[in-house]
Predict the structure.
Amino acid sequence: MNARPDAWLRQAQNDLELAQLARDNGYLAQACFYASQAAEKGLKSALLELGLEPPHTHVLNDLTRRLKEIGLETKDLEALISAQPQPDGDPIPLPRGCHPAFRAVRSRGNRPSPNNGP
């Protein structure tokens, strides 16, 4: 991996960790924001690793579409991005306007203790 995609991926990992910290401490809107940032930066890292300049956008669908255009399977990514923001039976509703990427942060449980780790 060359330095540029690696830098984007490191920042994506940092944003995801921050999203998890925000979630664990009840700051759901901030968790949503940083989860979306992590997804965006991870997708941009993937495009750069493939030798493509990512578009100047914050729209996850645009980034996923670019991966699809070069022949990569993106069905799972598309499903995550277009998913309903509040799954049935979820005891903690997502804040209004929260991006579905927050599901990635929530997938480890609703509110794990800080000692559980990622």
